[in-house]
Write a structure and sequence with these properties.
- The protein is α+β, with helices and mostly antiparallel strands.
- It folds into three domains: 3-107, Orthogonal Bundle (Helix Hairpins); 122-170, SH3 type barrels (Roll), CATH 2.30.30.60; 176-257, Alpha-Beta Plaits (2-Layer Sandwich).
- 48% of the residues lie in helices and 19% in strands.
- The protein is built from eight helices and eight strands.
- The protein has helices at 3-13, 21-51, 59-81, 87-103, 105-120, 160-163, 191-202, 239-257; strands spanning 128-131, 134-141, 145-149, 155-159, 168-170, 176-185, 215-221, 226-235.
């Protein structure tokens, strides 16, 4: 069925001569009952939405969408009560809805992703997150796009359809982060001395949490030295400042304890060639 045929059937369905007093009274009654029912439904939905803070950013959109659907249903019921044939009207609405959905496919996908983000709340404004190859502080959560502000003060706009299906690492949600620093010491230095030097460096920073306590472990043997792993916890807000300051404090702590940091080196042993026997 073509669009012209649907429109002609819709126009043919409106037969004003078929209207009677009974139909008009029935339509007025349906309209009155429908208006009251719509108001009651809207109030009930409003109470439900007001109790859900996660949906606060989209309250206005949900109310508007609900109003459009309810009034459209009331219009269809009203026309049906007046004897109007609804089959063609429903077919026309279906075609229009399909055309709109195809034209707004990406936009609707972003809107659906935005609703999923607001309901599941993998992050909130102010959280530092890593999404794929980008990371930054969440500065805005919109219906279609969300914005990250990087440490270089760049704004990155990410479609919500991508966010809803991406792997998101939230560094802020739990309130604290663990830093890991790997350093090398010479094979000539005792492990106890190296660990004591690293403990001295850690003790300089009150921002490092004692619960969980910092860990210092021998983590491996390299080509030029022994590797040690330092793990320490701090609050999310203090993480980067403490991380870089702790890096700077390791070398002076090694020097005070007489621990040396190795550099890549290669030992070459010369083996004298065997002397030729005289014949």
């Amino acid at each position: 069925m073509t669009l012209d045929e649907i429109l002609s059937q819709v126009a043919g369905g409106f037969n004003l001569q078929a209207l009677s007093l009974d139909n008009i009274l029935r339509a007025v009654l349906v309209l009155a009952v429908g208006v009251v029912a719509i108001k009651l439904i809207q109030r009930a939905v409003e109470r439900i939405l007001s109790r859900n803070a996660a949906l606060a950013p989209i309250h206005r959109y949900l109310r508007s969408a609900l109003s459009v659907v309810l009034w459209l249903l009331l219009a269809l019921v009203l026309l049906g009560s007046m004897g109007v044939e609804l089959t063609s009207i429903i077919a026309l609405l279906s075609v229009a809805g399909l055309a709109v959905s195809l034209a707004l496919q990406n936009t609707l996908s972003n809107l659906a992703g935005g609703i999923m983000l607001l309901v599941s709340k993998p992050f909130t404004i102010g959280d530092y997150v890593e999404i794929g190859s980008v990371s930054g502080t969440v500065s805005m959560i919109g219906m279609s796009y969300s914005t990250l502000t990087t440490v270089e003060n760049k704004e990155i706009y990410i479609p919500n359809s991508q966010l809803s299906s991406a792997t998101i690492i939230n560094y802020t949600r739990l309130g604290r982060r663990r830093m890991e620093i790997t350093v090398s010491a010479s094979y000539q230095d005792k492990a106890e001395d190296v660990k004591a030097a690293l403990a001295d460096a850690v003790s300089q920073f009150p921002t490092i949490l004692q619960d969980p306590a910092p860990e210092i472990r021998l983590s491996g043997y390299g080509d030029s030295g022994v590797n040690y792993l330092l793990r320490a916890w701090t609050t999310t807000g203090d993480y980067w400042d403490t991380y870089y300051q702790l890096l700077e404090a390791v070398l002076p702590a090694f020097q005070r304890r007489g621990v040396s940091m190795p550099y890549p080196q290669m030992d070459v042993h010369l083996i004298p060639a065997p002397s030729e026997k005289s014949t």
